From TrEMBL:
Pfam families: ELO. The chain crosses the membrane at residues 33-58, 70-90, 154-173, 179-200, 212-234, 246-266. It comes from Turnera subulata. This is Histone deacetylase. The keyword Ligase does not apply. The lineage of its organism: Eukaryota, Viridiplantae, Streptophyta, Embryophyta, Tracheophyta.
Length: 292
């Protein structure tokens, strides 16, 4: 094996901090319910306060200049998402190799990715990267501030989505929820592409001739729906999946996001003669992401 590949594999899946990771109040920052509710409440309150202050202090609707910060944020999120994708992919392969003896008579590797065995604990490689994904959700929230400063609008769908996704990623860890590995793989792959595209356009390079971000979100939601059906079938056919209660809660939230997105997509393509442009609708609902 190439030395560079060996080094990357070590730091992404075999480092002692990754292998020995354990989700707990004493070992993991941000792992308490009080921290979750406090941080989300602060995010909502600060976003609302910033919007109100701008409305009171700046009468004009001109955007606040942000310089290179949105582009740097997009580049950083693209790199972080790609790193989490590579890390959880390598870690999943390692976990399957090392633990297949325990569940191989009842599950295939794909079934394991969809349905953790009952009694699974939030420790080890894949949960380390699930924890990294949870922490990255707080960096996603910065886009809300950029939206408020640039468009001078408080987009409630964006606030709802970021709050829900942060809560959901917390539940993945707290209840060792099944399906989170595939969810993170799909989400981080799309995020790395979408944020890379946003960086590309932010530095002045030409964008796609079609709604690129929206189409990526359609693919993400489609994969999500198919996998949810797979989890439900395995739960009843294979004797149960770990964390199914949290999965049901996540599915309800996912249904809400899906309905919002379908409504948005129909309005964009089947406006029935209305003169609302695609750009205007995209500004109205700029952040529809997947909930798992």
């Amino acid at each position: 094996m190439d030395p560079m590949i060996q080094t990357l594999t070590y730091y992404l899946s075999n480092h002692p901090s990754i292998v020995t990771f354990r989700w707990s109040v004493t070992q993991s920052w941000g792992s308490t319910w009080s921290f979750l509710f406090t941080s989300i409440s602060f995010y909502l309150a600060f976003s609302t306060l910033l919007h109100l202050l701008l409305s009171l202090l700046l009468r004009s609707r001109r955007p606040v200049p942000l310089g290179p910060f949105p582009a740097l944020h997009s580049l950083s999120m693209s790199v972080i998402s790609a790193t989490i994708f590579a890390g959880i992919l390598l870690s999943s392969a390692a976990e399957i190799r090392e633990t297949a003896w325990f569940w191989r008579r009842s599950k295939t590797p794909l079934q394991w990715l969809l349905c953790f065995p009952l009694g699974t604990r939030p420790s080890g490689r894949v949960f380390f990267w699930s924890y990294m994904y949870y922490l990255s959700r707080f960096l996603h929230m910065l886009r809300t501030l950029f939206t408020i400063l640039r468009s001078r609008k408080l987009v409630y769908a964006q606030l709802f989505n970021n709050s829900v996704m942060t809560c959901v990623s917390f539940l993945w860890l707290e209840f060792s929820q099944s399906f989170q590995v595939l969810a993170i793989l799909c989400a981080t792959l799309v995020y790395s592409v979408v944020y890379g595209y946003r960086f590309w356009t932010a530095i002045g390079l030409p964008g796609a001739c079609f709604p690129f971000v929206v189409n990526c979100q359609i693919v993400l939601l489609g994969c999500n729906l198919v996998c949810h059906i797979g989890v439900l079938m395995l739960h009843f056919m294979k004797g149960g999946c770990n964390g199914i209660g949290a999965w049901v809660f996540n599915s309800v939230l996912n249904g809400v996001i899906l309905l919002l997105f379908v409504n948005f997509y129909v309005r964009m393509h089947l406006g029935k003669g209305k003169k609302t442009s695609t750009a205007a609708i995209l500004r109205e609902l700029p952040e529809v992401e997947k909930v798992n």
